[in-house]
Predict the 3D structure of the following.
Amino acid sequence: MARRIGSLGEEFFQLFRGFEHTAYRLEALQSYAVDYEEDLLSRFRAGEAQLSDPAKDAWVALVRNAVAAGKQMRRVHVVAEPLSEYVRYELTWYADSVAAGEDVRILPVTSAADWPAGLPREDYWLFDSRDLWVMNYDQDGRFLHAELVTDEAQVVVHNYWRDLAVHHAVSFAEYVSQQPDRGPGRVP
């Protein structure tokens, strides 16, 4: 049986302390139902200013420390336009993560038919181009588990998908500058 991690707690975050060179994430969902974000998401819906959040602060510190150690953290989020409320909220996280050194890229699509050819609709983390963790969610975006994939052919395919997504995506800064009404903290 493949190794699984059933929560986004300490065991999961150990993956980010153990990689040597690169950590890459492909995000395909338009909404995630994550317990630790409920309060911030509610405040975002109410139009409140960004307030400090321990989970976000821990993530930003993790990114900053990894980048300071010479490691690269990168993600591509395939986002459907018009943006979901959750993605608009997530852009506020990305702004802080980018400021800490994460290379966040956005790959916008306007319809299901516009999804980039050859790119999966699954989330995953790929560490050092060899340690592949497929992220599994239910239909409402609730995290179920992360599963380690050890099949070498699948790891190669996920590396290809990484390269394809990065090639077609634009930087977070470029995306926000092209869509100023959708930038961090703005609720269109």
